[in-house]
């Protein structure tokens, strides 16, 4: 009779909450990977749509899959609980609405066998409902070339690669470094754990191969609406503060500057837009919290937002927030989204370009 190894090669943690339409496809893509001894731990985080029952039926047919049920506590708790149940030499993560390309883990496992690094990280692609693939620019830049056995000091921009699902970790490294997902944060928690992992690693491998398909559903309106919630904004800012604190304590000024200029600003445009969007929760409080966060992170002692490494239109948005000009931000967003934006030589001639005090860096900006 065939028996599984006492210690599987790879453990896979799948946090599950209300993903009944997708979870079976996701698990099928996990078990379809070329033969590797697996330990798949699915943590049902209080699903109410029958997701847990689907996985229970699935697990009855597939001994590699274990289902753990818990009251809803958030994705961080679910992943931490799953990690406690893992028994593999290596560990990775899969979200239940995503799926794996064929041979996803093979290059990661080969690299770790070759280098002995603490973890390996590969390329992700966004895949929409029509199967169209897209590589986010910074991800593409970070994975343009193979780099083996590097440290975060050698590759500061990797701090922007916050995703757990395109990485395979040595389980012993995870335990020794004391890594976990932050509890009490329900959005953007990945930025904190990833900073801890990159800073703690003696070395890691950066690969060019696509190892994960990030499925993007068409219901983008729900995502936009979440951006306009106060708790969503609070989580966004809190995870930035926590990650920055860790990088600052590490003591490399290049990493700190990279955080301020190139990593922390990346996703702020979503909240700039949300601040002037219809349906934003308690818009006055939202605006005050957003402005407080912008001024705390980007100022003369760090770097003003208009000088961060973003497209100029996004920098203009941040400058207007810092200047407490909500009506002007709303006008800017409306003009960018509308058909009549005034341009000359491909640049947006915004109405404030000749104002005293308008930064030279924002005198002519391209649409965000």
In words, what does this structure look like?
With 368 residues, the protein is α/β, with parallel strands linked by helices. It has two domains: 10-218, Alpha-Beta Complex (Spore Coat Polysaccharide Biosynthesis Protein SpsA, Chain A), CATH 3.90.550; 229-362, no CATH class. Helices cover 41% and strands 17% of the residues. It has 14 helices and eleven strands. It has helices at 23-31, 51-61, 75-85, 106-115, 137-142, 171-176, 190-200, 220-227, 230-250, 253-263, 268-275, 283-297, 312-322, 326-337; strands spanning 10-16, 38-45, 65-70, 90-93, 119-128, 133-134, 147-150, 167-170, 204-216, 343-344, 347-348. The strands form two sheets. Strands 1, 2, 3, 4, 5, 6, 7, 8 and 9 form a nine-stranded mixed β-sheet that branches. The chain has a two-stranded antiparallel sheet with strand order 10-11. Strand 2, helix 2 and strand 3 form a beta-alpha-beta unit. It is globular. It starts with 9 loop residues before the first strand and ends in a 20-residue tail after the last strand.
């Amino acid at each position: 009779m065939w028996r599984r190894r006492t210690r599987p090669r790879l453990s896979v943690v799948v946090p599950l909450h209300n993903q009944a339409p997708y979870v079976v496809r996701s698990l099928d893509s996990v078990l379809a990977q070329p033969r590797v001894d697996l330990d798949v731990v699915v943590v049902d985080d209080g699903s109410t749509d029958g997701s847990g029952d689907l996985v229970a039926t699935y697990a009855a047919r597939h001994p590699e899959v274990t289902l753990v049920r818990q009251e809803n506590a958030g994705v961080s708790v679910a992943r931490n609980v799953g990690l406690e149940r893992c028994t593999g030499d290596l560990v990775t993560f899969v979200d239940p609405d995503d799926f794996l390309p064929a041979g996803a883990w093979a290059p990661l496992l080969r690299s770790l066998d070759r280098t002995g690094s603490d973890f390996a990280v590969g390329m992700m692609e966004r895949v929409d409902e029509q199967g169209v693939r897209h590589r986010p620019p910074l991800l593409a830049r970070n994975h343009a070339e193979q780099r083996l056995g590097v440290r975060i000091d050698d590759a500061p921009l990797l701090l922007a690669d916050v995703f757990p699902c395109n990485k395979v970790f040595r389980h012993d490294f995870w335990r020794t470094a004391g890594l976990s997902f932050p509890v009490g944060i329900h959005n953007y928690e990945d930025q904190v754990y990833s900073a801890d992992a990159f800073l703690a690693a003696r070395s890691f491998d950066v690969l060019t191969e696509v190892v994960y398909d990030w499925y993007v559903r068409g219901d983008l309106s729900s995502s936009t609406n979440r951006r306009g919630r106060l708790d969503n904004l609070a989580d966004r800012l809190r995870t930035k503060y926590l990650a920055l604190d860790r990088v600052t304590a590490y003591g490399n000024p290049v990493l700190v500057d990279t955080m301020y200029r190139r990593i922390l600003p990346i996703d702020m445009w979503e909240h700039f837009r949300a601040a002037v969007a219809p349906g934003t929760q308690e818009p006055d409080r939202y605006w005050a919290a957003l402005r407080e966060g912008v001024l705390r992170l980007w100022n003369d002692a760090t770097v003003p937002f208009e000088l961060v490494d973003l497209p100029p239109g996004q920098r203009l948005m941040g400058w207007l927030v810092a200047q407490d000009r909500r009506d002007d931000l709303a006008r800017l967003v409306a003009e960018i989204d509308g058909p009549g934006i005034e341009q000359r030589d491909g640049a947006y001639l915004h109405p404030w370009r000749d104002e005293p005090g308008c930064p030279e860096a924002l005198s002519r900006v391209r649409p965000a």
